[in-house]
């Protein structure tokens, strides 16, 4: 190796000079706002403990950041008392993360809706066209009546499928709370089409069975004798 090459070669024990740029990627990864942004982009489900109750919602901590869950996004139904959630674990997703505004909002509704839809799909898969079910009239509209079943599913009896005679509204023959039997006549996009009329028609198509007792042979002979006993030849 020439002297000139030796002069250019760094000494083996000389420390390598590092700059802030060498650490920028690591800083980005460690930034909690970047982490929660990734959670939001990837729709990550987080299990977090409710640490406080505030007006209109609850407080949780995410990667050291203070997050807010509105009461309307904690459940699919109205919540009477938010205190019931204090120190309880909830499964949520990040729906808004804004470092400049110091705003971090989370929600449980999306997860609950997905689980509800999956549960409903599993129940629907066990029902077939032609099945006969019993349920309760949940509500009545001008176009039909909604029937709710014990498993939580519901379906629609169109006004044309309520009875054989022509009616203006299902309220002419049904009222809320009535228990009715229905036949499943259609399943589409997770919705059940039902019919009460189909069951009525099926009953009418059945021929009534008439039980006619047949006399015994000796009884026939006796009766014929009775007919001729008073005839003089």
* Count of discrete alpha- or pi-helical segments spanning 4 or more residues: 6
> What are the low-pLDDT stretches, counting only 5+ consecutive residues below 50?
none
Please list the strands of the largest sheet in the order they lie side by side.
Answer: 7-8-9-11-10
Alpha carbon gyration radius: 38 Å
Mean pLDDT, as a whole number? 86
Element order: H for helix, E for strand:
HHHEEEEEEHEEEEEHH
Give a quick account of the main beta sheet: strands, pairing sense, barrel closure. Answer: 5 strands, mixed, barrel
Briefly note the structural class of the backbone: alpha+beta
How widely separated are the two ends?
Answer: 159 Å
User: How many strand elements?
Assistant: 11
Query: What proportion of the residues form beta strands (DSSP E)?
Result: 25-35%
* General form: elongated
Helical fraction: 25-40%
Fold and architecture overview:
- The radius of gyration is 38 Å and the shape is elongated.
- It is 27% helix and 30% strand.
- The mean pLDDT is 86.
- It is of the alpha+beta class and 233 residues long.
- It is built from six helices and eleven strands.
- 13% of the residues are buried.
């Amino acid at each position: 190796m020439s002297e000139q090459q030796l002069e250019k070669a760094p000494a083996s024990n000389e420390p390598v000079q590092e700059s802030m740029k060498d650490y920028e990627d690591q800083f980005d990864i460690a930034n909690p706002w970047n982490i929660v942004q990734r959670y939001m982009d990837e729709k990550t489900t987080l299990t977090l403990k409710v640490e406080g109750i505030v007006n209109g919602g609850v407080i949780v901590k995410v990667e050291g950041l203070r997050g807010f869950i509105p009461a309307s996004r904690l459940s699919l139904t109205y919540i009477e008392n938010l205190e019931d959630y204090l120190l309880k674990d909830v499964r949520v997703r990040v729906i808004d993360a804004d470092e400049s505004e110091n705003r971090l909002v989370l929600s449980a509704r999306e997860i609950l809706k997905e689980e509800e839809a999956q549960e409903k799909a599993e129940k629907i898969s066990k029902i077939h066209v032609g099945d006969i079910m019993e349920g309760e009239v949940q509500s009545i509209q001008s176009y039909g009546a909604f029937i709710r079943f014990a498993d939580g599913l519901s379906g629609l009896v169109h006004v044309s499928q309520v009875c054989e005679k022509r009616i203006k509204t299902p309220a002419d023959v049904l009222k809320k709370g009535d228990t009715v039997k229905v036949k499943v006549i259609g399943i589409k996009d997770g919705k059940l089409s039902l019919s009460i009329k189909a069951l009525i028609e099926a009953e009418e198509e059945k021929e009534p069975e008439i039980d006619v007792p047949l006399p015994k042979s000796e009884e026939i002979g006796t009766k014929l004798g009775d007919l001729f006993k008073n005839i003089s030849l």
